[in-house]
Amino acid sequence: MERLPAIPKPPAASELVADQLRVAIQLGHYLPGDRFPPERELSEQLAVSRTTLREAGRILEAEGLVKAKHGRSGGLVIQDRQLSSREARRLLGERMAYINMVFDFRIAVEAATVRLAAGSRTTVDLRNLQRCLAEMDELVDERTTGRMVIPKFKAADHRFHVGIAKAARNILLEEAMVRAHAEIYQPINAVFDKLEPYMNDPHRLIVHAIEEKDADAAERIMREHIEETRTAVAYHVQTGRVFQPGKPASS
Q1: In a domain? residue 247
Q2: Which H helix or E strand runs over 228?
Q3: Predicted confidence (pLDDT) per residue in 56-113, tens digit
Q4: Which of 121, 149, 213, 218 is the most buried (most CB within 10 A)?
């Protein structure tokens, strides 16, 4: 008789909570120096016990992602773990085959998502996307090169892509897109050392196509947008320099 495949042991609740919090950090929902909400509030948000939450915090602290501060103003504080360009280049090079799979996955998922969004978007959806555009425009206009400007831009960029997924009205596509972004968010931050005027142009074109309900144009621009990000990553890995496209691109 053929042996049944082994059933993997389900992860502990604390590991699942740690993963949720880790993804939130990876996607820039919490930036270095930020604190997670108070323990009681966060445990209610995640529908877990405070004991489970503390165990999850210890997992993240062991990974160097947070540091527990005690006292009245205490809590879990996000640590600055931005990679240097050299570290990012090494990490990206080691994982390039996998990262290419992530880009392939993003193209498949986000091309379908933006097509749906073009057909189902509402006025509220457009306002949300335009709010993200304005936030990114403000960061680009500052033209600063500090350590925080790229993570802030990338966090707004992620909210933009989530906004498209929400406009598509498909929670499965939204969850898949969030996971794909989290896989490569941190190392890609180090690929771009400053913001350039062109970096928000593809987002603006995508919003225009969604506003016009032009699904074909929206899908085409999204594919080009993601492919150019792939090109920028590969170029940085090969040369150690920042890719300067002749047309819009970022992530």
Answers
A1: no
A2: helix 215-239
A3: 999 999 988 899 887 766 788 998 766 666 777 887 888 889 889 999 999 999 999 9
A4: 218
- Same domain flag for 197 and 91: yes
Please report, for the domain that includes residue 25, its CATH number.
Answer: 1.10.10.10
56 & 95 share domain? no
Mean pLDDT check: name the lowest of 29-43, 64-78, 201-215. Answer: 64-78
Q: Is residue 195 part of a domain?
A: yes
Give strand ranges (E) for the chain. Answer: 66-69, 75-78
Query: pTM score, two decimals?
Result: 0.78
Take residue 250 and report the two structure tokens written for it.
């970022």
CA distances from 3 to 7, 8, 9, 10, 129 (A): 12, 15, 18, 21, 52
Where in the sequence is the domain holding 137, given as residue range(s)?
85-239
